[in-house]
Design a protein that fits this description.
The chain is α+β, with helices and mostly antiparallel strands. Helix content is about 20%, strand content about 35%. The protein has helices spanning about 20-30, 35-40, 55-60, 65-70, 170-180, 190-195, 205-220, and strands at about 10-15, 75-85, 90-105, 110-120, 125-135, 145, 160-170, 230-235, 245-250, 255-265, 265-275. Strands 1, 2, 3, 4, 5, 6, 7, 8, 9, 10 and 11 form an eleven-stranded antiparallel beta sheet that branches. It is globular.
Length: about 280
């Protein structure tokens, strides 16, 4: 394939609200037990992803059609969220989206979508980076700057902080899709999941990310998600339904922590990073 280029256009604004009723439903779906969220006084750190699905689709449309034709499939490879201040239930945020980076790897091409989420005063409150891997695609020109790394430090394994478990219920995909609008067929239809290369239907990756974040905060004894400055993960494998997800947390520094998650010995989340405000 000849080299493909892309025009990175900034799209928006897409207006959304950190709706208290939706936050309560989100907490129920993702098993958030933190008191500040259950009392209606705080917003889960991963909740702003619900506002980026439509902006993501618009940004992805800037890729040339030939890129999708040249790939044998696409997966959500990584997600990174930076929170510049605590979120307030009920506040409005405007989301802006654009393709911010493209990198070719052995497995294919990474396409990074960047989202700025700003408040009524125009201040950036949240930044997100959604990395999509187009499997088998080569020939796209590199673009932009990738987000900061969050690789699991080897030294952190010597500082385990604990393990937590969460049961992935069989109906979690429907409940999460009702909140997010993500009705991708491989979360519901086994035949279509098999066509995509998977032997089972599975939970949404961003739902699994939220579950892991809650569990790590619980292990740290942090009951206020407003203390989270950053949370980032790599989606290593799908998380099956009706299984137990085990989350393992490790210390990096006083305010920085690494985590992983697995089901039946298969790691589904790797290179997890959670950072607290100092």
């Amino acid at each position: 394939m000849s080299e493909l280029g892309v025009a990175a256009v900034r799209h928006g604004p897409f207006t959304g609200r950190l709706d208290p009723e939706t936050i309560a439903r989100y907490a129920a779906v993702t098993g958030d037990r933190t008191a500040a969220v259950l009392d209606g006084g705080a917003v889960p750190a991963v909740f702003p992803v619900l506002l980026v699905f439509a902006p993501n689709e618009v940004a992805r449309a800037d890729l040339p059609h030939a890129a999708y034709q040249g790939a044998r499939g696409g997966v959500h490879g990584e997600h990174d969220i930076v929170l510049h201040r605590p979120l307030r239930p009920g506040e409005m945020l405007e989301t802006w989206s654009q393709i911010s980076a493209i990198r070719t790897t052995r497995a294919g091409t990474q396409v990074v979508m960047h989202f700025d989420q700003v408040d009524e005063h125009g201040a950036v409150v949240v930044e997100q980076w959604w990395t999509m891997m187009l499997l088998g695609l080569h020939g796209m020109a590199d673009l932009g700057t990738t987000p900061a790394g969050h690789r699991f430090p080897d030294a952190a394994r010597a500082r385990p902080l604990g393990t937590a478990s969460h049961h992935i219920e069989a109906d979690i995909t429907r409940r999460y899709a009702e909140l997010s609008g993500d009705w991708a067929a491989h979360h519901f239809d086994i035949e279509l999941a098999r066509e995509a290369g998977f032997g089972f239907v599975f939970a949404h990756g961003l739902c699994t990310m939220a579950i892991c974040t809650h569990r790590v905060l619980g292990l740290l004894g942090v009951d206020d998600p407003g203390r989270v400055r950053r949370v980032a993960v790599r989606f290593a494998a799908p998380t099956p339904l009706n299984c137990d997800l085990t989350v393992n947390a490790f210390g990096i520094s006083q305010h920085s922590f690494a985590f992983e998650a697995e089901t039946d010995g298969t790691k589904t989340i790797t290179h997890g990073r959670l950072e607290l405000r100092q």
